[in-house]
Amino acid sequence: MIETRQITKAMGEKLILKDVSVTIGKGESVAVLGPNGAGKSTWLKIVAGLIRPTSGTVAINGMPKKKDNYSAQALIGYLGHQSFLYDQFSPVENLKYYAKLYGMKKPEKRIDELIERINLQYFKHEPLRSFSRGMVQRTAIARAILHEPQILLLDEPHTGLDQQSKSWFRDMIASVHQEGVTVVMVTHEFDQLVDVSDRVLIFKNGHLTEDQVLRGSVTLSGVKSLYDRQVLGS
Which residues contact 166 (CB under 8 A, 6 or more apart)? Predict the structure, then answer.
């Protein structure tokens, strides 16, 4: 489903990624861990097509990712550090705008369903500039899954979410995972990944240092121990 081969990214004299090769199968749910500055978000942006690698290739469904390949891009839902929403618009207006960009016909039912799913039905016509950070994040999550993508790329999606919203988000990831959506999630929330991830990738200093399949018996403490060994050397 997703394949990155020997991805290297340099910015000036600084090497952000070095020879990162990963293959992620259809329907896998993968957590991406690592300290700040490890290259996680850069790698995810390259997979999403938002930036280009200095060298290396990205393939989606076996086809090399090319500039302006809109059919391949439509397979992807991306949530980054920016919401990509317009704060003068309401949740409904934002989602209608993106539905139009994706060429969705009669998206009203899907939008209503998502607004209820993110529990913003009482605020759906209010401008986002009046929202809390968590409310904006929930709207951004709805934007990412609006067009029912086959691949969902999430960069620290728990930002701004309270405990109730985190619980809702975990259930949503489990649901789309069961539907066969490929999920790749950069996160620092270890307790949120154990129940919804099949696999963990760990980055350090621009290198992929661990690619571990999670078995049913893996616990939160087990994931933390794996992380500590790879990142902290303990």
Answer: 158, 189, 192
Judge whether 142 and 176 are in contact, CB under 8 Å. Answer: no
- Sequence length of the chain is 234
Q: Decide if 192 contacts 173 (C-beta within 8 A).
A: no
Q: What is the pLDDT of residue 69?
A: 67
If one counts every other C-beta atom within 10 angstroms of the C-beta of residue 120, the result is 19
Strands (E), the chain: 2-11, 14-24, 29-33, 55-60, 63-64, 76-79, 151-155, 182-186, 199-204, 207-213
- Two structure tokens written together for 43: 């790698």
- pLDDT by residue (tens digit) across 89-131? 999 999 999 999 999 999 999 999 999 989 999 999 999 999 9
Q: What is the pLDDT of residue 140?
A: 96
| Domains along the sequence of the chain with CATH | 2-232 (3.40.50.300)
Which element (helix H / strand E) includes 159? Answer: none
